Amino acid sequence: MAAKTTYPHFVDPQDVDFTLRASISNLIAKTLNVAGVDADSKGFGIRELKPQNRSWVLSRMAIEISHRPSEYTPYNITTWVSDYGRAMSTRNFVLDCEGEVFGSATTQWSMIDFNTRRAVDLRYIAEHNDAVWAEEPPIERAGKLPAVDAEATTEHRVAYSDIDFNRHMNSLRYFDLMLDCLPLEILTEDRAVRIDINFLNETRYGQLLRIGYRNEGDRWEFEIATEDDTIACRTTFEWR
Amino acid sequence: MAAKTTYPHFVDPQDVDFTLRASISNLIAKTLNVAGVDADSKGFGIRELKPQNRSWVLSRMAIEISHRPSEYTPYNITTWVSDYGRAMSTRNFVLDCEGEVFGSATTQWSMIDFNTRRAVDLRYIAEHNDAVWAEEPPIERAGKLPAVDAEATTEHRVAYSDIDFNRHMNSLRYFDLMLDCLPLEILTEDRAVRIDINFLNETRYGQLLRIGYRNEGDRWEFEIATEDDTIACRTTFEWR
């Protein structure tokens, strides 16, 4: 059934960073959780797909956050699937506190069949088709990000606490790794930010990741790669 | 008001590890969250204490987990304050799925006054006194753990994603650091485990932590310390 659906949220103590506002990773985590819950509730989520040995894979995301809500603040995440092609579906999100929008996101997903390791043709997924609400994404979609000519790097070995049921790094952990590279001052101020992410390849338990980054003014570009130079993701943070 | 209170929970996809069961850290996180929510609801939680520049500090914890619930399983956490002295309060927890107990925990807390940097005399906190439910802890309290003669170590620098509002390492992150040192096989099997933790000193943003550990049979002892040998915590995992 075509619908925009709103999910109530609350900034709990475990959601905030040292500024006592919801952290960027936490807002992204909640947003992506809503994608899962909404797809499940409409009959095309991972709960339905798992027995068919299929799953959704997040390919690109853009999110703009004008300010981060404080601890104990109720807020809403509204989501809808705006459109899809053969291989890619676009899901959108608006985050608001009492009607005042403080965040907007748009994401592109493909559905993978683990038996064939190929993308499923979305045109034949009736529940997904029925859910489409033809309203444009609230912000520009994430573009294709170029390679990053890193001027600094850190390392991280993919550990137990990072992995999902496939023993792949949980995408959300990349945000922690990247945000941990930033000077604390950027995160102390509650500045507006746009983040563009391209997820390119999975990384696995035990792999050593290289987090390379480059900073010019308010722009930070990241590239996370494995030892054999497989690119896991590229991300741009643009502070405003 | 004296009461044991039960809080309903659910194992969401973001709560599980690669075995598709709630992770040990997640069960500990949920348990400690319940401590905060219950204390807040009874008028002696951190929401009340913050304006007075006071807070609860977790000193020791013991938890026994017989098995970990699977994704999409509802469960309950029941909590009560069993007793307290001048400086230390004991809060207990029982975790059950449809009445079948799978986890029990007992924790010891002191209340710190940040103005004086000293423990508050709990005998004068009326709301806390009124909440006591005189039922013994469900498991033996955590004892005082001795120094660990480490046979292996890893390192971790305290980063943005680790810290709380005081820019101290969030206690829950220690569990991730320790569990990440274990062979994946131990975490693959859903074995019963008892965990004893002593929290000794806070660690701060930017400090380099040394995670030392020692294994004998089913027993793993951990000690986390800073570069200047301040001990942050000691923990024993005893698999059964």
Q: Can you characterise this structure?
A:
Two copies of one chain form a homodimer. The first copy, chain A, has 240 residues and is an alpha+beta fold. Chain A has two domains: 1-141, Thiol Ester Dehydrase, Chain A (Roll); 143-240, Roll (Thiol Ester Dehydrase, Chain A), CATH 3.10.129. Chain A has five helices and eleven strands, in the order E-H-H-E-E-E-E-E-H-E-H-H-E-E-E-E. The first copy, chain A, has helices spanning 24-41, 46-49, 126-131, 171-179, 184-188, and strands at residues 5-10, 54-65, 74-84, 89-97, 100-113, 118-119, 152-157, 193-199, 208-216, 219-226, 231-239. In chain A, strands 1, 2, 3, 4, 5, 6, 7, 8, 9, 10 and 11 form an eleven-stranded antiparallel β-sheet that branches. In chain A, helix 1 (24-41) runs antiparallel to helix 4. The longest helix of chain A is centred in the N-terminal third of the chain and has 18 residues, at 24-41. Chain A is globular. Chain A starts with a strand and ends with a strand. The model of chain A has no long low-confidence stretch (mean pLDDT 95). The interface between A and B is medium-sized, with 31 and 31 residues.
List the helices and strands and how they pair.
The structure is a homodimer of 240-residue chains.
Chain A: E1 5-10, H1 24-41, H2 46-49, E2 54-65, E3 74-84, E4 89-97, E5 100-113, E6 118-119, H3 126-131, E7 152-157, H4 171-179, H5 184-188, E8 193-199, E9 208-216, E10 219-226, E11 231-239
Antiparallel strand pairs in A: 1-3, 2-5, 2-8, 3-4, 4-5, 5-6, 7-9, 8-11, 9-10, 10-11
Helix pairs in contact in A: 1-4
